[in-house]
C-alpha cells in the first residue's frame, strides 16, 4: 500500500500520543500514512518528538520550526496532523490549507465559531481533506453502544444523565487549560463529551447552563496529564497560576429527538471524585461506554432484566467493527476487551490516521468532519453563553453568531 507522507505539527504531549498511534498503525500492517517530519515553534520539542520517532517507528523524521520552511524543504509531504494547543488551531489549520496540505486537526477545531469558519473557508478553498481529531467514538465499546441504541434495545431515548467531578485546585496538565482565551478545560474536555452524546442520541438543539470559576489560583500537582505523555515537561509547569477558565459548568440539554440531557462538568471538586452516566429510554437503560477501558456494557430492559458482557452482542446480530479496529482489538464483534489502556489509547488515534489516509486516497469524507467538529464546539459554547446571558441558548444561535458574548474576548485575543 502506498503511504501518504505526513508531518506532525505540534510536538507536545498529544504529539507524542499521536506518534505512538502511528507506531500502532505501522505494526498493524495496514499503514497508509508515513511520518516524514515534525514541526514545532519550539525546536527542542520538535527534536524530542523526532528522537522518540526514531525509537517508535525506526526512522527519524526531519525537524522544522515553521510549516513554510517544511513545505520548501520537504515538498513531498501531503498532509499535516495538527496537535498544537487549542487556541492556535485556526491559525495553523488555515496556513496548512493555504500551503496545500490535507489536515487532521485535533479537537476542538477552534475555540470560537468564527475561528472554525476561518478553517472551513480555507478548507473549501483548498479542496483538501479536513478531519477533526475526535477518537473517543472509535472505541469498539462505543461503537457497540451506538449499535445497541440504534437497534432500539432501550426504546425511544428519554434522557442522558452524565457528570464528573474531580480536580481540586491542581493545574490540569498545562496552564493553558485554565486560560479562557487559549483553551479552557471545559471546552477542551467538553467537546469529547458532546461528541459522544450527539453520536449516540443525535443533535443537541438548546442548552441552559450555569458556569463558574471556583479556583482562580491553581497549583502544580504531583503529576501532570494522562500516562507519561507530559512528564518530559514537568519542571516547566509553574508552581502557581491565575486561572480564568470556567471549572464548573452544569447544563440542561434539549436533543432534537426530544430527549433531555443533564451534564455536569466539575474540575474543581475537592474530596471524593465522582463519575456517573446513564441513558434512559422508553424500554430500559444503559450506562454509556467508558472508552479505552474495554468494560462490558450493561443494558437493562423492561421485562428482560440486565443484559451484559458478550450477551449484549445478541441484541445487535449485524454489528461488526471495521477491518482495522478488528485487527487492532482482536475481533470484529466485541462485548468487552482486555487491551491495556495505553494500547487502546494509541489504537483509537491510529484509526483516525487510517481514515485520513483513506479519505485522501479515495476522496471520501471523514466521519468527524468540519461541521461535526464545529457543532461539538457550539454546544460547549452555548452552555458558556447561556451562563453569561442567564437564559437558554440554541446551538443555532451560536453557530450563526447571533449571540457571541462569551466568545467575544477570545475573538479579540486572536484578532479573528
Ligand atoms: N483527543 C484527545 O484525547 C486529546 C488529548 C489531549 C490533547 N488534545 C488536544 O491536542 C492539542 C495539543 O494538546 P497538548 O496537551 O499536546 O498541548 P501541549 O501544550 O503539550 O503541546 C502543544 C505543542 O504545540 C506547539 N505549538 C504551539 N503553537 C504552535 C504553532 N503555531 N506551530 C507549531 N507548533 C506550535 C507548542 O510549542 C507545543 O510543543 C490540543 O488542542 C488539545 O485539545 C487532544
Structure description:
The chain is 38% helix and 23% strand. The chain is an alpha/beta fold and 416 residues long. The protein has 2 domains: 4-136, Rossmann fold, CATH 3.40.50; 140-290 and 295-336, Dihydrodipicolinate Reductase, domain 2 (2-Layer Sandwich), CATH 3.30.360.10. The chain has a 9-stranded mixed β-sheet. A 6-stranded parallel β-sheet has the order 3-2-1-4-5-6, sandwiched between helices. Helix 5 (113-126) packs antiparallel against helix 11 (370-389). The model has no long low-confidence stretch (mean pLDDT 96). The structure holds nicotinamide-adenine-dinucleotide. The site of nicotinamide-adenine-dinucleotide has 25 residues, from helix 1. Residues 9-15, 39-42, 45, 83-86, 88, 92, 106-107, 133, 135, 173-174, 188 line the site of nicotinamide-adenine-dinucleotide.
What descriptive keywords fit this protein?
416 residues; alpha/beta; Dihydrodipicolinate Reductase, domain 2; 2 domains; nine-stranded mixed beta sheet; globular
Overview in brief:
With about 425 residues, the chain is of the alpha/beta class. The chain is built from 13 helices and 17 strands.
List the helices and strands and how they pair.
Elements: E1 4-9, H1 13-28, E2 33-39, H2 43-57, E3 62-64, H3 67-73, E4 79-82, H4 89-98, E5 102-106, H5 113-126, E6 130-133, H6 140-150, E7 157-167, H7 180-183, H8 185-201, E8 204-212, E9 217-219, E10 240-242, E11 248-255, E12 260-269, E13 274-281, E14 284-286, E15 298-301, E16 305-308, H9 323-329, H10 341-362, H11 370-389, E17 393-394, H12 395-399, H13 405-414
Parallel strand pairs: 1-2, 1-4, 2-3, 4-5, 5-6, 7-12
Antiparallel strand pairs: 7-13, 8-11, 8-17, 9-10, 11-12, 13-14, 14-15, 15-16
Helix pairs in contact: 1-2, 1-10, 4-5, 5-11, 6-8, 8-11, 9-10
